[in-house]
Amino acid sequence: MNDHLSVETPEQIDINFQQAGIGSRFYAALIDFLLLLLIALVGYYVNERFISELGDVLGKWLSALGGVLVFALNWGYYIVFEIATNGQSLGKRVLGLRVIKEGGYPISFADSAIRNLVRIADFLPLFYGVGLLVMLLNKNWQRLGDLAAGTLVIKTVRAELTLPQAGSYSVSPQELMYDAWIQPALVTEAETRTICEYLTRRAKLSEGRRAALASAIGSPIVEKMGGSGSISYDKFLEEVYTLKMLCSENKNVKTDQSITNE
Q: What is the overall mean pLDDT for the chain?
């Protein structure tokens, strides 16, 4: 089974992803399961050690509230993490995996909610038995939740981006926000052409498509540079391109000076 996936966006940018295999997804799920189990055991201990001693009425009310919180945690954990960290639960982050839409875009709240509400069916009869069977029967290793939400799980290390010949693009002088951790040397030529293509075409995109495409292009670059916090991917791509071009110009100037000196 081929573990590479090529997605062409409506903007004619082909993005190649490496799909996450069953093994890495299993270990990611195991990490998440053990974390939730630990939280549940702590909650049980607190209930038995402290809450049950508060009296019949208050103790029962707090125990019931604790049960609701445990249920909400089990099903809300994945949704909160996937939305807050751009498609990664803790287990997926440790294993270097990410959930995306089939079109290559980041998932929305509705996508995450659907794929995780169906998780109970995937989990049957024991620890993703149904989910494993369904993954083995489809070429993209999607469980029932993925099929219902139209999502894929990929490895965060992305393959080369293939796109049409990019034209020139210049960024006007601006106040840089991310230059403290942007590392132009880490940006490949393919990624530079992709950014240039995006910056050239973004004016023709709707606000939603523009934000989604900027995130799809910028997220892997942010990750390998070690960036964090709330990021405007549109502005981030501008700054990456600007700094990349400045580095290229400085390199060319030094080369010319070296030739002149010789």
A: 79
